[in-house]
Amino acid sequence: MSSIASHEPHAWSEWARQFENDDVTHAMHTAAIGLHQLKTRLSQDEWSAAIAGPEAGALRQIAHECPYTRRGYTKPRGYAGDALLLDYIYGSAPPPDDTTPRGRRILNWMRRESTGFKSVRWRRDYFAGRLDELAARMHRPRVGVIACGHFREGQRSLAVRSRAFEILQVLDQDPLSLEVVAAEQEHDGVTPVPASVRDIVTGKFPLEAMDFVYSAGLFDYLAGRFAARLTTKLFASVRPGGSLVVANFIRMMEDGWMEALMDWHLLYRTVEEVDLFASEIPEAEIASKRVFTDPYSNVAYLEIVKR
């Protein structure tokens, strides 16, 4: 693997050759790891030049037979990582009918082997469990979900399906995502709210007196100072005894694949940087604070409980 990664032009063509030989399992393994190695070893300028080259373009054409990879690159909603793309990760959306057999095998490999995919699914199930745990210990709690996407954790929560919440507001700036939530989950007492993070920070849409507020996939795109401002604003919406949880990727083995073949760039933080999201909150307001990682050590979670 390292010998492939040390000869950039030859590496791209070798990965493409493996796909063309229909050895998708081997090709995915070598390309995913090899692209990660290249990204790690090269400077940012060298990496940008490599992924803009013709060899990368040839591999990208093959990779785009996978609907997940193609959607990340084409960004039909104007941004990477939209809710339908996440549904490919969850298995909630089938591949389009015109997906090639090779494209299906690429997607199936990712669903089976990618620890990034596993972390996203674990994140969904973690928040579903938190919703159930909250409703089990508190009568009619109030919850706010920031950048909810299709709110797939709600479909896996007994508390949501039982309408156990006084308020369950799910916010997103993408109206198409909220249309899906409305069609599938409004009968569960879920209230879709069109709002951006700037609406929250500026007070255009205030969250008030919440028992639990969380954001699963938003902070991966926010600059550090803005992330701290948003964390402070979200924490202000939590009433005493309530909690805020935000998540951020700290690493991704498929980061090279995402950047080179999907034009999808996350802001990977260290655990210490995730902890700094709470740096503007007065310590006197904090009852407890912790940062923990998922079982795959890919995503860090900051949890802050209000005094």
Annotate the secondary structure layout.
Layout lengths: L1 H4 L2 H13 L3 H18 L2 H8 L2 H10 L3 H8 L8 H8 L10 H13 L1 H23 L4 E5 L5 H4 L2 H4 L5 E6 L2 H11 L5 E4 L2 H5 L8 E6 L8 H13 L1 E12 L5 H8 L8 H5 L10 E8 L5 E8 L1
Parallel strand pairs: 1-2, 1-4, 2-3, 4-5
Antiparallel strand pairs: 5-7, 6-7
Helix pairs in contact: 2-3, 2-5, 3-15, 6-7
Describe the fold and architecture.
With 307 residues, the chain is an alpha/beta fold. Helix 3 packs across helix 15 and helix 6 runs antiparallel to helix 7. Strand 6 and strand 7 form a beta hairpin. It contains 16 helices and 7 strands. The N terminus is likely disordered. Helix content is 50%, strand content 16%. The radius of gyration is 20 Å and the shape is globular. The termini are far apart. The protein has a 7-stranded mixed β-sheet. The chain has 2 domains: 112 residues, no CATH class; 190 residues, 3-Layer(aba) Sandwich (Rossmann fold), CATH 3.40.50.
Brief rundown of the structure:
By secondary structure, the protein is α/β, with parallel strands linked by helices. Helices cover 50% and strands 16% of the residues.
